[in-house]
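Record minuted for completeness.

…
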Amino acid sequence: VRRVFEAYDWDGSRSLDQAELRGLLTDLGLRARSQAEREHVRQVLRSVNALEVSFEDLVERIIPRVRYILAEVNRESLRELFAKADTDRSGDLMITELVGILRLMGTFPSQALVEEAVLEVVPDASGGLRTIDGELLLTRNIVNFEQFVHLAALLQERTEFAHSERARRITQVHELTPEQYARWNHDLVELYASFQRFCDQADALSVAHVTHVVHDASVLQSSTGLYNKLRGLLQHREGAAEGVLTFKQLLELLDPIRRQEQTASQEVFEAHCRNTGGLSLLGCQRALRDCVVMPKGETEGQEIEALIQEFDEDGSGEVDRDEFERLVQHVTERLRTLRREAERQRVFEHNWSEEKYREYRLAFITHAEGMSDSLSWARIGEAVEQINNRWPREEVTFTLSELSEPGQTVDILTFFDVMVAMEGYDDSLNIALRAGIEQEAAENLCKEWRRLKPSKEGLVPWRRIKRHVNTMQHFETEVGFTEFIALVTGTSANFAEASLTPAPMASRLRGLFQ
């Protein structure tokens, strides 16, 4: 707290005015989001009854009261969220349920922050918080409602503070100017993470990957001309022949585009406010669309409405120009977070590691033409081949035909579904090979199994199979791939026999399942 206080104490007076105090509270993660929260925080600040606030007053009077208010003002809405998440009606939540509620509230804490906060607020859980292998136990009911109220406020505060601190460290290490920090502070953490993902050398980026970094980070407003702007800046950059950029040089390269965006947002504001000095909340939504900040779906639309309410700091029902400029940056950041979280939810469903998620995401990004958010079928095939060139292209095409219409482009979530299907093909192939079936015959068998359209659990209804297989065996409901192999091998020759060539096998299987 002292370090942040001193950063705001520009003149060394050992005190902060009201405007500096609001900025400090935001940097500490104590940001009022709703109108009710903002009004309560304003009352706390007014109660200080002083134009300047000392460090002692901040620590002893203001921060404790603001923390209490932010925890209590939303108690009833938190009670509703708690009850909805407590599906087993135990009166306690699992860590996964706690994190799910926080994500619905727009807070995305790291696992380390969650673990630290839970151990602090629920000390009795320390003994049973981990598995025998040391992994965090996410599915044990350990958080009651009062602890949940405390944890929700604590994790919101610490998540925002951790993000601010990360941005400050990046600024210091790379010796960014105050102007660069002010211009990029909302996006520094995400942009630097993408920069590191594509670095070919120690903290240096190949110019060939600049568009990939910008696309991956999503820190610039998407438009049809963005790719060409970047290519133009790279062509005219002095020293382009060197072929690499430091992070500071990357920011310098992108600065003109960010300045254009800020100028454009100001022009959009002026065009919509019609000399009234402010935009209505409805007017903000129209103006954001002109700034190429548009929701994808109902959830994002609701999030934008909530953020507009949040930025009406004085409760006037209008947003002024400075508020609107910050609103554009903040909405862009929040939508990026929501979209990345949607990806991570899909990753969680598929039980992928972080490394696999990054590998698949980067394959998508590097094959996106012109920094597009979707890939053609041909590009999908190239991306899949980059990941695993043993996967048959016809199987990729078959999967795409199940997930989209011919000629349609595919977004990254659908691309992830394609990868799941190809992993399923791999799993089936390995099972068949372990059963003694030769490679090409096993591949044909896997293709026919996939055309039976197994469920996500890898099962096919028995009634769908029994019409095609002459067997005395009977299954009550569903059949897995292992049982399928046994059924097929039991009604024909042994797949391992050398005399059974792949071509007749494919023909037999096609006849079997017509």
Q: What stands out?
A: The chain has four domains: 1-172, 176-333, 352-424, 436-513. The longest helix spans residues 321-350. The radius of gyration is 28 Å. The mean pLDDT is 80.
